[in-house]
Design goal:
Blueprint lengths: L1 H7 L2 H19 L7 E2 L6 E2 L1 H24 L7 H18 L6 H29 L3 H20 L4 E2 L3 H8 L1 E2 L2 E2 H18 L3 H10 L1 H6 L4 H25 L3 E2 L8 H11 L11 H20 L7 H16 L1 H8 L11 H14 L1
Antiparallel strand pairs: 1-2, 3-6, 4-5
Helix pairs in contact: 2-13, 2-14, 3-8, 3-11, 3-12, 3-13, 4-5, 4-6, 4-11, 5-6, 5-11, 7-11, 12-13
């Protein structure tokens, strides 16, 4: 029983429940919703589940980076624009190269995208940790600046390119699983090892819980904050690469637009508090999968675009309420049993004692 109660208090458990409920709703509408097939032309596995995994890869990336920023009691509103940076640099690089179809061209495009993201993320970290600006203001400015840089890189135009290895990042499969999702999970594992097998994760949590106490304990917050914002920018840039590789084109004005909201929701659903402190990488990953499933469900059910935000809000609010221990106690608490009446002899003795005192 205690294990069940512990599971109910785990945020990622409710994210899984949400995914299952959404899949069940879709299956009720179409009994073949979860069916998998093989494309006779390409020989690749097809199905709605694989579509969800593919579209979840960029969300997992930005949610993973956002997790550590929020754990330090910060916020990063620039991750959507960083996705545009990743897409713009990679597409423009591939379109300018002499041999854009080679693996070397793909690696060069990815490397330049990551390099620019490191620079911009480091600038955000310096402004927050050294200059002392509020994370909200800093990343709001960086959101506008990065979006403008993406437009400058592409000349304000949609940019496309041809590179089969790059295209396979989103459209390829490894053992029947989308390549982008496999890469995203590998990166999640590597980052988890970095955070949990070294002291870095504990120092991030310490800074989020009490910056003054962590400083007195010998933790230097400045380099850690700079590294956190740089990591968030890099992961968002990789998410942008996954996003544009699916269609091999980038729109600098719309790529990654409003994705910061999905990242924040995924992190909060996963159990990381906006007040900073302890974080859950598994929870953020499950939250990103839930957001991807929700986005797919909205399209599958034919929810009007005008009503889409309200539909998503209702689902997320219901899930957050289920995560609340107070709400669970109100819903699942057992009725209180009245106290047992004392035996007659005890009751008579108590009455005699009261009369003697009177």
């Amino acid at each position: 029983m205690s294990q069940v109660k512990g599971l109910l208090r785990t945020s990622w458990f409710w994210a899984i429940i949400g995914i299952v409920v959404l899949l069940a709703i879709n299956t009720i509408k179409d009994p073949n919703y979860l069916a998998l097939g093989v494309n006779p032309t390409t020989g690749m596995v097809t199905g709605n589940l694989l579509d969800i995994l593919r579209i979840s890869a960029p969300i997992i990336m930005i949610a993973l980076g956002m997790t550590f920023v929020i754990a330090t009691k910060g916020i990063d509103l620039s991750v959507g624009s960083m996705m545009a940076i990743g897409g713009a640099v990679s597409m423009q690089t591939l379109s300018d190269l002499q041999e854009p179809t080679s693996v070397a061209a793909m690696l060069q495009a990815i490397g330049l995208s990551v390099l620019l993201a490191v620079i911009l993320g480091t600038i955000s970290g310096v402004l927050v940790s050294v200059v002392g600006l509020q994370p909200f203001i800093t990343t709001l400015v960086m959101m506008m600046a990065a979006r403008g840089i993406a437009r400058v890189i592409t000349g304000g135009q949609n940019t496309n390119a041809r590179n089969e290895p790059f295209r396979q990042l989103a459209n390829g499969q490894l053992f029947g699983i989308p390549t982008s999702f496999v890469i995203a999970i590998v990166l999640v594992i590597l980052v988890t090892i970095l955070m949990r097998r070294t002291a870095l994760g504990l120092m991030i949590e310490a800074i989020g819980i009490n910056p003054q106490a962590s400083r007195l304990a010998g933790i230097r917050p400045r380099p850690i904050l700079i590294a956190v914002y740089a990591l968030a920018a890099v992961l968002a840039s990789i998410g942008g690469i996954f996003n544009v590789s699916e269609v091999m084109t980038v729109n600098p004005s719309s790529t990654g637009n409003s994705m910061e909201m999905d990242a924040i929701l995924a992190v909060v659903i996963g159990g990381t508090s906006l007040a900073g402190g302890k974080f859950s990488i598994l929870g953020s990953t499950m939250g990103a999968l839930l957001i991807a499933t929700l986005n797919k469900t909205v399209v599958f059910l034919g929810v009007p675009s005008a009503a889409t935000p309200a539909f998503k809000a209702i689902v997320i609010i219901a899930l957050v309420l289920l995560q609340s221990e107070r709400v669970r106690n109100l819903v699942f608490r057992r009725p209180k049993t009245p106290p047992a009446s004392p035996p007659p002899a005890v009751a008579n003795a108590a009455n005699d004692a009261k009369e003697a005192v009177a």
